[in-house]
Amino acid sequence: MARVILLRFVSSVVLFILVPTVTFFVQTLTPGEVARSVLGIGATQEQIDAFNHRLGLDSPPLERYFDWLRHFSQGDLGNSYITGQPVSEILGSRIGVSMSLVIGALLVYSAVGIVIGVGSSVGGRVWGRVVDLVSTIGIAIPNFWLAVILISAFAVSLGVLPAIGYVPLSESPSGWLVSLILPVVALAFGGITSVAKQARDRMIATLDSPHTGVLRANGVSEASLVFKHALRNSAGPVITVLGLNFVGALSGSVVIENIFVLPGLGSQAITSTANRDLPVIQGIAVYFTVIVVVVNIIIDVIVPLLNPKVRRSS
Amino acid sequence: MMTLNSTNRRLGPLRIAAFATITALLAGSAACAGASSGTKQTGTTTRVLTIAASSSPMNLDPALNGNGSPQMWFTRPAYEAFITRTPDGEATPGLATEWGYSDDRMKFVVTLREGVKFSDGTDLTAEAAANSINYWREHTSFTQYLDKVDTIEATGPLEVTFNLKTPDPLLPWVLDQNGQAASIIGPAGLENPEMLGTESVGAGPYMVSKSETIANSEYVYVKNPNYWNPDAQHYDKIIIKVMTDNNAALAALRADQVQVADIDANSVEAAKAAGLHVDQATAALVGIYLADLDGTIVPALKDVRVRQALNYALDRKGITEALYGSAATPTTQYVTEGVGGYVASLEDYYPHDPEKAIQLLTEAGYPDGFEFTLAVQPGALNQDMLSQAVVEAWAKIGVTANIKSYPSFADYAGDLMSLAVPATSFNYYYWGGQLVVIEGLFTNPALYNFFQYNDQPVNDLVAKERGYDLDSVDGIKAAEDVETYVVENAMSVPVAACDTILVSTDDVTGTEFSSVWPMPDMTNYRPAK
């Protein structure tokens, strides 16, 4: 187990360097100047030169890259070209929003998806068909469309939930929860269906296995078979799907944050990319990499704990 | 085997019901918590105005921010200008109490209000004001606004003098709250300009709350305790939320989370149907700007007959109705009715006449048409759709325009400046009257004149116009002469005069504005109750 985690950390270091490096060069080699974005069409060449010089943008790309890397190794992500704010300050105020949204979605699609999946696996053919149908619909419905429908129904027509905005947890725990309900549901919906289908398929496979047949023949109760044996055996693949969904939800959050006007990393990524604000884009790449790596490590830890076969092989 | 196991693993209706109950409880607990807290959210005692803006500011520093709405909204609360325009365009005292030109119109003298302090408590002086305007002049991209000014100096404790190189009747506009040149920044901000991206040091009614503001998402302004006119602070807090999605803005208005929003033409009917209050006034010209009038990369554009053909090819009425509905008027000139320089007979100077367009192209030596690249400016007012419609119309007279789109304004501006494209879609606000538009498009220098062509008659006519006050009889006549020349010579392809549209709930009043000064100013807004 320790070896797996250690290997993960080592590969993470490579990712931490590789992802921002690719981001840097893709952004740097793409046409378009940040100076034009900040100063506008009418800026004189002198103004543009002064702007570039002040931010060190007149240096060769490699020199700028290694300068960024040196600061990064000291934990300094630099300052925004546009506002001059430290990148860590900009993203620090947004990470909580994105994490609230994505973790909220994870909790919802995990709980609801597993319940539906397990329920349908023991509910016979009709329930299975229902889950298949709902899964197909869930995958087909775009989350941005669902978001608009949810706003229209719960915020505009019924008036029970806010249409937009985010309330920090520190300001009001209940307000925080309320502000997250619609965006979390919109983001989680597709995940619920894929988790339910995965849970159902794994449960059926386990319940149909000879091993379960032996337990059943020995008089183990059906409830014990489902909750104690089959659920635990099915957990590994389901958790892997949860992890994949989590990473997918990170990218999905970009759209959801925009619709619900949530000040998260996703909406910042859109603005910074349009403005060519490279330090912020680099920072977002680092934050997203950290999140993905941490999620993968958590999965690597949890799956062997639940499944002795995986534990032994690792 | 399969059938047997399937049968055996059924748990029966009771257990299935248990699963359903758990699911429902999970969902229900969340919903209950949501509903109860939702009511609490509205129970606030402070007066808060929440505005939805359709785009982020370029910067919170007035020298680096754009103008027009919604850009101006982000600096307006914290920075007061010398002159405050009322919604109908009247110039009223702001930080200045008096202003005027010298007899020879080579000086513009401003007298400042006594006793004004910046938000950090320091005094407004003539020297501080002059330093601020000089800082703005050095850093802004709107360099043409003050390019007729030689020096700006403090000529008394509360007197600022602009020494001009040539007469310039635009100064009372450049120094208003939309021009932003005289949105005076305090000495602390000038000493440390980096801070102006996240904080404010102005003499406006509010100041940026740095701790509550999240750049590009939500900008929060709280009362400036040192503001000279506390009676004009109608709210305790102003929040501007960046909402690029019109549907989200309308939903937020209907849910009473936002009181005011700017929306585009496509959402007007939905806003009206939802019972929201809609203010709109003609605000901006949209069309195609022909940059390469010297024919540097597309020789055909140098010929006035070709440019006239491009104008005759368009069914402006059809395009305008299709793209902007009732929120725009087709036009072939550069200012709208009510603004000096408007000439009624120029409004439909190039009626839709494809046959005449083909005839003009043939006379110019292009019977088979020609080809060029058309840049599409990213951003507002349906310019992508407008460009598509124009290109289709031109194709019918044999002219091929290849659309070039850009992911960001930086990419677009870079392409223009490298002289890679001969024409672009554009929009231009009518603020400041006709002279601002003409000096932005056709003189040399001009904001859009990146090919730096020199049309001497335009330069001469505009020089004459600068010798008069914009609203004087002579000034209006000179503006009409300029307008007639640029339209007759088809110096570009105007298509429509578009409205700025503001939607508000019945919680707020004072949202009206006019085409003379189409810049909604939230410091005029008041709680309705």
Write out key terms for the chains shown.
A: 314 residues; mainly alpha; 13 helices; 80% helix; B: 529 residues; alpha+beta; 4-stranded antiparallel beta sheet; 20% strand; disordered N terminus
SS-based class of chain A: mainly alpha
CATH superfamily of the domain at 95-263 in chain A: MetI-like
How are helices and strands ordered from N to C of chain A?
HHHHHHHHHHHHH
Major beta sheet summary of chain B: 11 strands, mixed
Low-confidence parts of chain A: none
In CATH terms, what is the fold-level topology of the domain at 95-263 in chain A? MetI-like fold
What's the total helix number of chain A?
A: 13
Largest interface: A-B, 78 and 73 residues
Helix fraction bin of chain A = over 70%
Shape of chain A: globular
What's the multimeric state? heterodimer
- Report, as a whole number of angstroms, the end-to-end distance of chain B: 75 Å
How big a fraction of the residues of chain A is strand? under 5%
| Strand element count of chain A | 0
Radius of gyration of chain A: 24 Å
Gross geometry of chain B: globular
Describe the protein.
By secondary structure, chain A is mostly helical. Chain A is 80% helix and 0% strand. Chain A starts with a helix and ends with a helix. The mean pLDDT of chain A is 84. By secondary structure, chain B is α+β, with helices and mostly antiparallel strands. Chain B has 15 helices and 19 strands. Chain B has helices at 2-8, 13-41, 126-139, 171-174, 187-191, 246-254, 268-273, 304-312, 316-324, 354-363, 383-395, 409-417, 433-441, 456-465, 473-488; strands spanning 48-53, 83-85, 91-93, 96-101, 107-112, 149-156, 159-164, 206-208, 218-223, 237-242, 260-263, 277-290, 328-330, 371-375, 400-404, 423-429, 493-504, 508-509, 526-527. In chain B, strand 2 and strand 3 (91-93) form a beta hairpin. In chain B, helix 8 (304-312) runs antiparallel to helix 10 and helix 14 runs antiparallel to helix 15. The longest helix of chain B has 29 residues, at 13-41. Residues 1-43 of chain B have low confidence and may be disordered. At the A-B interface, helix 2, helix 5, helix 7, helix 8 and helix 9 of A face helix 1, helix 2, helix 6 and helix 12 of B.
